[in-house]
Write a structure and sequence with these properties.
The protein is of the alpha/beta class. The protein contains 22 helices and 13 strands. The chain is 47% helix and 10% strand. The structure holds 6-O-phosphono-beta-D-fructofuranose.
């Protein structure tokens, strides 16, 4: 592949560097006092999401230059290539078409000469039918009892999306169903998830794109043994196990009938798969209508991303701001702070989405990058984080851009709770931006020696995202916003945001170590001296 022009040599990049040198010390206090209407201007509203970016260390010129960079690297063409089904995952030679998972019936998206949208809807219809049968009790377990417990077994993208969506949309879920998730190969995960359940009322969804993942297959076999030991009949598998996968051969080998399999396609990346059949547990929990509303939310954001001008395009602006801090300010991390308890797993979900996508060290042509790529994502729901790590965001030595996410209407109105919650969103963003000067601290009567400790430097950048209410639809919009922001960043950095070679080496080494741990006689070890010693110590103590 021909080498593309180096990002850091691009005119727009160099203009940004020069601009950064000029403005990086400007304080948000100054920016706001010079332009009192900044907060009314520097926001974008689209498809029901409101994004305030005025508390960023940017001027209109910064935004103009960032957009120039997006244009110079050909972001528009990259977006079109994704939506068109081009094989933009170059290292795996695959199309990247999670947007097809939420394309409305009747739209057409071609992959290798075939329209994939009808197949998407065929699977969605089968999922809807199956979900309805579980929800109305007409799908019976092996002993004739109705299914009351759903356990999704999967890991990574086959777990984090479903868990996040289940938690996020719990308000809309059927409370007569117990929905749990087993991901870790640590036996505790399975043991705790099943200890109080009746196997006769429990359905396992084995979710794995490849159907070969060590953790998932180990848990799936344990689930099979658990069910069969309690139900005592091989035939029970047909009523208590369904599979979600792209690998029909492995599913059949496991013993799940192909008619109990819900398929998807190699053009759906694991971390982009929550809208595919991987979302079966979500659909069972919230019902097909709500699931489709979530897809409509995703689609609305897709259309916005595809068509809105860059300066009014939520994911583009978010992605460009991420590049601005990551590459020019040297920010290492981004904190995601949802002020919504139902979004408690959203940061964990975003960690895979952002870090597996953009944690890359070479460009598309394989040459090393000479700039920083994806930042570390982390976070906790507000207000809990305020009483743990916000101290560092306010007064530490690191710059940590924050995404605050809030909803105007509560799902559980309870006295003053919601106003108190949202007052904290606004207060935190305000405190981070404007801080408190030594003069202000002194004027409060603080003794001189204590003043430096009580000063808030401010100038800490934040985005505030507001939606009216957490609904299946608004969740879809929010997730798609981050998906496309990640895409925008990856396009600027010229990396493959859709492969994940970095997870392979550990998997391979574990396969080598397993027999060394399980051998009945002392194995000959040929690792480094640290690994050898750890293995020996484990073996000595494992059964003592
Ligand atoms: O190991 C990483 C990964 O490949 C993720 O990208 C993926 O989401 C996860 O493993 C699970 O893979 P599968 O769905 O094939 O079990």
């Amino acid at each position: 592949m021909a080498s593309a022009m180096k990002l850091t040599d691009r005119q727009a990049w160099q203009a940004l560097q020069a601009h950064y040198n000029q403005i990086h010390n400007r304080h948000l206090r100054t920016l706001f006092s010079e332009d009192p209407k900044r907060g009314e201007r520097m926001n974008v509203e689209a498809v029901g999401l409101y994004l305030d970016y005025s508390k960023h260390r940017v001027t209109d010129e910064t935004i103009r230059l960032l957009i120039e960079l997006a244009e110079e690297i050909g972001l528009r063409a990259r977006i079109d290539a994704m939506f068109r089904g081009d094989k933009i995952n170059v290292t795996e030679q695959r199309a990247v078409l999670h947007v097809a998972l939420r394309a409305p019936r009747g739209e057409s998206i071609m992959v290798d000469g075939k329209d994939v949208v009808p197949e998407v809807h065929e699977v969605l219809d089968r999922m809807a039918d199956f979900s309805a049968r579980i929800r109305d009790g007409s799908w019976k377990g092996h002993t004739g009892k109705r299914i009351r417990n759903i356990i999704n077994i999967g890991i990574g993208g086959s777990d984090l999306g479903p868990v996040m969506a289940y938690e996020a949309l719990r308000h809309y879920s059927d409370r007569n169903l117990t929905v749990r998730f087993v991901s870790n190969v640590d036996g505790t995960d399975f043991a705790e998830a099943t200890r109080d359940l009746d196997a006769a009322e429990t359905l396992f969804i084995i979710s794995s794109k490849t159907f070969t993942t060590l953790e998932t297959m180990t848990n799936a076999h344990t689930a099979r043994e658990w069910s069969l030991s309690k139900l005592g009949d091989e035939k029970a598998v047909a009523k208590h196990f369904v599979a979600v996968s792209t690998n029909a051969a492995e599913v059949t080998k496991f013993g799940i009938d192909a008619k109990n399999m819900f398929g998807f396609w190699d053009w759906v990346g694991g971390r982009y798969s929550m809208d595919s059949a991987i979302g079966l547990s979500t659909m069972i929990a919230i019902g097909a209508e709500n699931f489709r509303a979530m897809l409509a939310g995703f689609h609305a954001m897709d259309e916005h991303f595809r068509s809105a001008p860059f300066n009014r395009n939520l994911p583009v602006l978010m992605g460009l701001l991420a590049v601005w801090y990551n590459d020019f300010f040297g920010a290492q991390t981004v904190a995601v702070l949802p002020y919504e308890q139902y979004l408690k797993r959203f940061p964990a979900y975003l960690q895979q989405l952002t870090m597996e996508s953009n944690g890359k060290h070479v460009m598309l042509d394989g040459t090393p990058v000479d700039y920083q790529t994806g930042p570390i994502f982390w976070g906790e729901p507000g207000t809990n984080g305020q009483h743990s790590f916000y101290q560092m965001i306010h007064q530490g030595t690191k710059i940590i851009p924050c995404d605050f996410i809030g909803f105007c209407r509560p799902l559980n109105p309870l006295g003053r709770h919601h106003d108190l919650l949202l007052s904290n969103v606004f207060a935190q963003a305000e405190a981070l931006a404007f801080g408190k000067t030594p003069e202000q601290v002194k004027a409060e009567g603080t003794p001189d020696w204590l003043v430096p400790h009580r000063v808030f430097e401010g100038n800490r950048p934040t985005t505030t995202i507001l939606a009216d209410e957490l609904t299946p639809e608004s969740l879809g919009k929010l997730v798609a916003l981050y998906e496309h922001s990640v895409f925008t960043q990856g396009a600027i950095w010229n990396i493959d945001s859709f492969d994940q070679w970095g997870v392979e080496l550990g998997k391979v080494l574990a396969q080598r170590i397993i027999p060394e741990l399980e051998a009945s006689t002392e194995p000959k070890l040929a690792h480094d001296s640290s690994t050898n010693t750890l293995i020996r110590r484990y073996r000595e103590r494992r059964h003592s």
